[in-house]
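EI: anyone free to look at a 160-residue chain?
SC: sure, send it
EI:
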Amino acid sequence: MRGARRKGATLSARESTRLSRPARRNSFHFFQGLLAAASGKIGRIEESLELLEQALSQVRTSKEHFSDAELCRFKGELLEKMDRAAEAEACFRAAIEIARGQRARSLELRAATNLARLLDRARKRDEARATLAEVYGWFTEGFDTGDLKDAKALLDQFHG
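SC: here you go
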């Protein structure tokens, strides 16, 4: 599996060059964020963080903000892997606020789940539970999706 991830990351890096051309630039920062997340999963943390910084810089200068929350969340995941918990927490909180402002509940749930895990590791279980329960409570359907299953499992762990 790890070999397949490496190959995928390499192919994605080549494809990112093609996507960065002006005619295709609208969603480039989102795909660059996905590439960064994939690179992070195979251990290329520094490279991933650099890609994410580039993507976030592009977002700041563009009018395309649909991926802001996910890019912040991806950055938080990378920072957490680098043992930079305070910075990761700030990224997860920013992702939650951005998603909330965009009324993107699924993205907010993902960021809240990441934040809850981080807070739990920092021995702040009550805050972790409250943060995740607030977002999880908004959902009335879709409980068979991966994000909601993950959130529910984490909430059950907090109660157990």
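EI: The radius of gyration is 16 Å.
SC: 👍
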